[in-house]
Each structure stands twice: as structure tokens, then as C-alpha cells.
Amino acid sequence: MPTRSPDPDLVNRAEAAAILGISVSRLDRLYHDRSTTGFPSRADGHSWHRSDITRYRPPAEQVTRSAQASIDRSGDPDELVDAATAAQILGYRERSALHGNNPVWLRLKECADDVSLTPGGRSRRRWKRSTVWTIAESRIDRGGTRATAGRPAGTPAGHPDRSGDPDELVGRAEAARVLGYSHPNALPPQALDLADEQSTGPSGRRRLRWRRKTLWTMLDERGA
Hints:
Blueprint: E1 10-11, H1 13-20, H2 24-32, H3 34-37, E2 48-49, H4 50-55, H5 60-70, E3 80-81, H6 83-89, H7 103-110, E4 114-117, E5 123-128, H8 129-143, E6 169-170, H9 172-179, H10 189-193, E7 197-200, E8 206-211, H11 212-223
Antiparallel strand pairs: 1-2, 3-5, 4-5, 6-8, 7-8
Helix pairs in contact: 1-2, 5-8, 7-8
């Protein structure tokens, strides 16, 4: 089973594939053909710098075709499934691909249809199959978008996303999507500084949330 890289700034094959929304075998082919695909070089013989992976954009047509084929669209749309089944629906071979800063995992956590506590006090999330399918389609759309490092990619149809409740608080993944960035790690420092809520999780990780209207104001200022 794939494990996380001990260095948070480095990612292994499974983590890199999860960030890019592609299979590990597809990642291996991109790396093998890096002279033509432009895939990043490894940092230490078996891992990559996380920033290099988040900036990389695989060939759009190939990503879309591969991702479409990997989605499991069988079953009752309203059936609630756990993370392991959600990973299978999304085409991942292992549940462990859904963790950390994988943008698909961050989106799943924000969109859980049912949240309960386990006897040990941990959150147990479940999703309708239809919710997972929607997130899978969103992953494909982002995967087919080319972006320049450090600059936001265009939102769907070239327009900012201003849908939803203006006072709703959203996390990094949704904030990045609204602002047009392809990955939560691409959010610029000024966006982080304007978060409406800041807290610290049990692991010491800083948690940020923004009201949608705050993000829309950022879009207005960027357009001006």
C-alpha cells in the first residue's frame, strides 16, 4: 500500500498521481516520456517536489480521456459510500490516494453528505454516489485546463464563479476553485491573509475559511 512521503515538500508516485488526478501508470508513462511531456524531474531518485507537481499540467486530451474511463458510474446515485468506495469510484487503486492536499480529497471533505463520529471520536464521512460523480467531473474539467504557474486559470466559460450563499464559509479547495486556481496550494499570500476565519487543527495545521462574498470581492479587485 502506498505511504506518504516523510517530507511534506516531497510527494511519491501515488501522491503525485492523486494531485494530478491521473492513474499511477499514466504518471509513469508521463515521466518516462518527460523529454516530450515536460514532466518534472525527480528530487531524490523516487520523489518529486510538491510544488513542481502542482504546477505541472498533463496533456489535456489524454487526461480527460483517461479520467473519464476510470470513473465507476454504476450503482444507486443516492447510495451513501465511504472513502474507500469513493476512491474506487474515482478510479484510484488505493484509499490512501485520498489524503493530505489532494484537491479531490479536499473537495470531498467539504461536500460530505453525511458526517458522524466513530467510537474513537474521528469524523466518519460518507457521500452519495452522485456527489462523487460530480466531483469526478470537476476533476476532469480542471485537469483539461492549462495554467501558468503562479497565475489563476480561467473559470468555466471564462467567467468568475459567483454562485452560492454569499455568507457561506468555504475551505481552501473551494476558495481556489472560485478564484480560478487549479490547486489549493496555488492560493497567493494575499488571499490567505484575507481569510474570514482562522483556526488551528489538532495536528497544528492552520485552517482557513472564506465567505463567498469575500472571494467575489477578490475577483472584483483582480478584474479592476
